[in-house]
Design a protein that fits this description.
277 residues, two-stranded antiparallel ribbon, 10 helices, 12 strands
């Protein structure tokens, strides 16, 4: 099965195709001994309501005021509310593409943001007060910078605790490293792991969300969303200026996909604003 399960072109075959989808889901769930307890847990219920996810470059001048040397969170969130109905969550993107010109690692970049971790914790608290969840970012390819006396897993867990973060975005990854889910659950239930790459079905019981990146506007269903309807997939095509294909997907109830469009496409912003109103 590919990421997108295409529908047959001939409408007379659609009912057979739907029957096959149901059969495949039931048999594959049994084969994998799929455990859906994470999706039934109230601590993870928030992710299924997280429709607009903002990918925030932390040095974006809309987000950071260089003259005041501080963040412009209130105006940033108000701008999002005005333009497309607001954010449900933010990914605080911190290091790439600047990382690598010195020996600072990805965790240093969070620590050395203006005001350090205490100021970032204030930002997270402000977001929570407005009902907005916050992701931190993890770059597994950061291996040539300064090493610390702890594993990346332990450093991520420490950062989640320090910031009271709600989720970790797994840059370039299809699934989390072994042990991360268990360590997060031990310090704070409900922290989501969201992968960028296509997630194997075997990991859907530990990661309730993922990206659906670069899909064409073609009839069909997303495999992971069909396998577990409560799995959140954020749709994104970062290199496209025209988001018509994603907008078509957004309004197809059989896909059940939620949308991520935060850029200069005025039509996309208008449609999302209307959907959320």
């Amino acid at each position: 099965m590919y990421a997108l399960i295409p529908a047959p072109a001939d409408p007379s075959q659609w009912q057979t195709w739907r029957d096959q989808l149901h059969q495949w889901r039931a048999s594959t769930r049994a084969l994998l001994n799929f455990d859906d307890s994470l999706y039934a847990s109230p601590e993870f219920a928030w992710i299924s309501r997280t429709f607009n996810l903002g990918f925030v470059m932390m040095y974006d001048l809309l987000f950071y005021d260089t003259a005041q040397a501080d963040y412009r969170l209130d105006s940033f969130l108000s701008h999002g509310q005005r333009e497309f109905g607001g954010y449900d969550a933010l990914i605080l993107w911190h290091a790439y593409p600047r990382i690598g010109f010195d020996d600072r690692n990805q965790f240093d970049f969070y620590r050395q943001m203006p005001g350090g971790l205490p100021r970032l914790r204030q930002l997270v608290d402000q977001c929570h007060a407005r009902g907005i969840r916050v992701y931190i970012d993890y770059n597994p390819w950061d291996t040539g910078t300064r090493r610390e006396g702890q594993s990346d897993i332990d450093l991520l867990v420490d950062l989640v605790k320090a910031l009271d973060a709600d989720a970790i975005f797994l840059d370039t990854m299809a699934y989390a490293a072994r042990g991360l889910r268990e360590k997060l659950d031990s310090v704070r239930p409900g922290v989501t792991l969201e992968s960028e790459s296509l997630m194997p079905l075997e990991y859907l019981d530990t990661q309730p969300s993922s990206w659906a990146q670069g899909f064409e506007d073609a009839p069909g269903v997303l495999r992971n969303k069909w396998f577990e309807r409560r799995h959140m997939q954020h749709l994104i095509s970062r290199w496209q200026r025209d988001h018509s294909a994603e907008l078509h997907t957004l309004v197809r109830p059989e896909r059940g996909v939620k949308m991520l469009v935060i850029d200069d496409d005025e039509r996309a912003r208008y449609v999302i604003r209307r959907v959320r109103s």
